[in-house]
Here is the input.
Amino acid sequence: MKTYRGSCHCGAVQFECDLDLAEGTSKCDCSACTKGRFWKAIAKADGLRLRRGEDALTDYRFGSGTIHHLFCRTCGVKVFGRGHMEALGGTFFAINLACLDDVTPAELLQAPIAYQDGRNNNWSSPPAETRHL
Ligand SMILES: [Zn+2]
Here is the structure.
């Protein structure tokens, strides 16, 4: 487990999060992840600390509305999502790995990636093709 610092593009939103990238990251082919090219890792409820920008965050929800997609109202970068699923240990944060300021390319290259076929609501299986995700 390591603590990373992250931010949106303009810096209005800044956070710290505790992640073990060796435990895995994921990419999904649902409509939102595809358009945002969202590459994520999951942090536990106490694994994310917002350092600034609570009032800069805007909440976008779609579909069943279970996931809060939080993005900066100024620069539009989605910093993380927040959801609640018992399978993930209750409340969790899906951290946008692209927003981590102090992760190294080597750490990202070594992180395993699981692919999820969110487009077909089949989160436990990868889609047929993943190279474009
Ligand atoms: Zn911003």
Notes: The beta strands are 2-7, 14-19, 25-28, 39-44, 48-52, 57-60, 68-72, 78-85, 90-96, 113-116. The two ends are 26 Å apart (CA to CA).
